[in-house]
Amino acid sequence: MDTQDPGRGGEIDPSDQWVLNPLTGEYELRMDPSVGERSVPAPRGSAPEPAPDRGNAPDRGTDAPGREIPGQRRRPAAEPASTAPGRRRGRQRATKKSTGKRILLWTSGTLAFVLVAGAAGVYLYLKHLDGNITTTDTAGATSDSFSKDKAFSILVIGTDKRQGKGDAGYGDANSVGHADTNILLHVSKDRTNATALSIPRDLIADIPNCPTRQQDGSLKTIPGTSGVRFNTSLGQLGRDPGCTVRTVERLAGGLKVDHFMMADFNAVKTLTSAVGGVDVCLTHAVKDKDSHLDLPAGPSKVEGEQALAFVRTRYSWGNHGDLDRIKVQQQFLSSLFRKMKSDDTLTDPSKLLDLAEAATKALTVDKGIGRISTLKDVAMELKKVPPKNITFVTLPVLDNPADGRFHKTVIQNKTPAQQIFSMMNDDVSFTEVHKKDKAKEAAKLKGPRSAAADVRVDIYNAGAPGGSAQDVLVWLQTSKGVPKSSQLGNAGTTQKKTTLKYAPGQADQARELADIMGLPASALQPGKSETNAQGLPAIVLTLGQDFKGAGVPLGGSAKGPDVPKQTAGEVKCAS
């Protein structure tokens, strides 16, 4: 009211200062009762409470263009002392109504200020979280953006670099920050399932040439090396996380890694403290002098230093090797995921803020996901996947024969490893999803089946990757007990779909082979078989362009390679 004439300010009803301008269609705040003065537009989308009816007061405005905009309405003059009782009660009601309008106006203004201040606070806090995040330019190794409508793969890297308070007791004091813990997380397009594949640090791998972005913005290509430990794909010779991404893609044979997230030892401590600890379970008491883990048998809750000690412990599990430590880390991460997704965390604002602070300070990510809004999108997409359908599995490996008696490194067990990569690339789950569809498919394949040893099959390649017929032959004979199988090379034609042709009397063999290979019912084509090299009737398996690898299902019931696995929904004890 400071802008009004003091002599007249008391006569103006605050609610009547908002008037509709017919030229703009918006309400405006009339700062002076005179028509010629300027008006202040009302906030967009807002409208004042309509003024009470003034009876037959002259109309000072019009809807016609170019006519005068309505001015302010004045309150009636004070009633004389002799006013009749009825008039006095009417004036009291009007006064109460006017007072109510003032209260409403002041309250609305205060509320608007609080909302604006709150929005500004949220904006500043999000900017603060953005400032916490460290990003790395991977020189094209990762995607520039994150899509909520596609499947995605993120390489999670834990380094052994010592930084942060209390980290001096862990890892290699001279490490430049190698890829100590590596998990390739793939989330399916429909968000029904996800696979978290652990890659051993001591895996022998070929590291490709790696362009790295230097501090001055220039590119430097670090030469690749062959037959070295996987963990040297990071840190060694100045390699950045983009080099580790490129190494994984070379291992995966076609699977694209979209993004990376990297954390050091300190991240485990801060994240577990932020959620109030993580539940773990031990089959036996552990007091490890190397990692300083000290826990009794049975369930415990760990956070901070003890949480880090739990995931760093090596010589208290299984055969004291890195593969046994990976299993324990998978159990720990399963529990951490359940805790982060629990109502205890999601409904606790204090925990959520602590978690946001801890996560953004702990992570280094690629520029494609280097904002808090994008990381939130990633978390929300992952949250859609049921814990029971998030499968943890370790890349199948064999002892490295080059090590001799004392095994220090491992090599990839190519057949099951490539099956896993193919399943991930095709969004095939290790768990049971789409049960109704699978039940319908199984019903189509119902009927008598022969024993695997009685299946006689000839295998042809009609569009599958080179060598697929031989790979299937070896897999069937060595892993699935189908000795009466032969491969006859290229079919001489190309077809999109894999098919299995059989004569009427061979339906039981066809059903058994379809089940072994995970073929859909549509792949089975009754008709004619052929005579094999021994002069005996054989069903005909023709591998089409849809074929991804031996043991990789094409929609049937096969469950992929027989490898140890667990889901985020399972509670297991470290042993």
Question: What do these coordinates show?
Answer:
The structure is a single chain. The protein is built from twelve helices and 27 strands. It is α+β, with helices and mostly antiparallel strands. The strands form eight sheets. Strands 4-17-12-5-6-7-18-27 form an eight-stranded mixed β-sheet, sandwiched between helices. Strand 14 and strand 15 form a beta hairpin. 35% of the residues are buried.
Proportion of beta-strand residues: 15-25%
- Helical coverage, percent range: 25-40%
Number of helices: 12
* Strand arrangement, major sheet: 4-17-12-5-6-7-18-27
What is the tally of beta strands? 27
Could you give a short account of the major beta sheet?
8 strands, mixed
Low-confidence stretches: 1-16, 32-88, 164-169
Q: Structural class from helices and strands? A: alpha+beta
Radius of gyration from CA coordinates: 35 Å
